[in-house]
Design a protein that fits this description.
single chain; OB fold (Dihydrolipoamide Acetyltransferase, E2P); 3 domains; five-stranded mixed barrel; 39% strand
């Protein structure tokens, strides 16, 4: 699995640098089938990717840029968007002509190996590393290995509701995710199950504390304020507040049997004091079932894998 990480995770390793330093070492990587990484410098007019290798000119031909490019299933934007970012590849040929050396690389070959040896072995409930590649209103796309992309829907990101995935994530962010299901080569992901249960999150707080939060929802009966990505409390209605504002709140009560945290707003202000780093309760292994709810509460929120 260590060779099938999201793109960018191998580029700084000593092993990767050593294989890129000479034609001899690149030829060794070719013979061994080693997956390497380097920076994509540009896409030429034919959408071949020029790769930054110190010892020679190197190129990923368009047809080798990603699985599905030839069939049209994968659009060329998948190649163009890699410029100035790391790309993974296998060395497939080294051509020497008139004292000039051209190294031919294949990102597609690395992806095919990743699917065969890693992604095909995953089962529902497996926890995997991922990297945010881009964000849409409905969810975020993540690299789950060698540039192969999957989706985390917005409602699977956290228990605390957000209006847009950028409220929680940013492009290039390293995260963890859980395999929720598979359909052929497609892998479906979820994320909220790694951010702790109601009890685990409320253990971070005590009644009587004044803490920071983010206003996530404004209803007629009150204002929901996020204390952690998997925990929100309810404060009484207040004028001149807006979704996305920061708040300082007094914790009035924590009620396990109702899974409620009652808050009093002390102050509301613009500007984010929001930290997008995440506290994960699991980062590896496998989970069969996750139960967010307390034992005392009649309402049970859970995920079975």
């Amino acid at each position: 699995m260590k060779n099938y990480l999201p793109e960018g995770k191998l580029i700084g390793s000593n092993t990767n640098r050593n294989y890129l330093k000479s034609i001899i070492s690149l030829n060794e990587a070719k013979e061994l089938g080693i997956i390497l990484e380097a920076k994509a410098l540009m896409c030429d007019c034919e959408h071949n990717i020029v790769v930054d290798i110190p010892c020679a000119k190197a190129i990923i031909p368009r047809s080798e840029g990603a699985i599905g490019i030839d069939s049209g299933e994968t659009k060329d934007i998948a190649l163009l968007s890699r410029v100035n970012k790391p790309v993974c590849f296998k060395v497939i040929d080294i051509v020497i002509n008139n004292n000039e050396t051209l190294v031919i690389l294949s990102r597609k070959a690395a992806q095919e190996e990743c699917i065969k040896n890693y992604l095909s072995t995953l089962t529902s409930g497996d926890i995997i590393p991922a990297k945010i590649t881009h964000i849409e209103q409905f969810g975020c796309f993540v690299d789950i290995g060698c540039g192969i992309v999957s989706l985390i829907p917005i409602d699977a990101i956290s228990v605390s509701r957000i209006s847009h995935p950028s409220d929680r994530f940013y492009n290039g962010q390293d995260i963890y995710a859980v395999v929720k299901g598979k359909d052929g080569d497609r892998i479906f992901l979820t994320h909220k199950e790694l951010l702790g249960t109601w009890s685990e999150n409320t253990e971070l707080f005590e009644v009587g504390q004044t803490v920071g939060g983010i206003i996530r929802s404004i209803e007629d009966y009150g204002i929901f304020i996020e204390l952690t990505p998997n925990l929100a409390g309810l404060a009484e209605p207040k004028d001149n507040v807006h979704i996305g504002q920061s708040a300082s709140v007094f914790i009035k009560s924590i009620i396990p049997e109702k899974m409620k945290v009652k808050l009093i707003i002390v102050d509301v202000f613009s500007g984010s004091g929001f930290d997008k780093s995440l506290k994960y309760y699991f980062t590896e292994g496998h989970i069969d079932k996750w139960n967010y709810s307390t034992k005392e509460c009649s309402k049970q929120i859970y995920t079975e894998f």
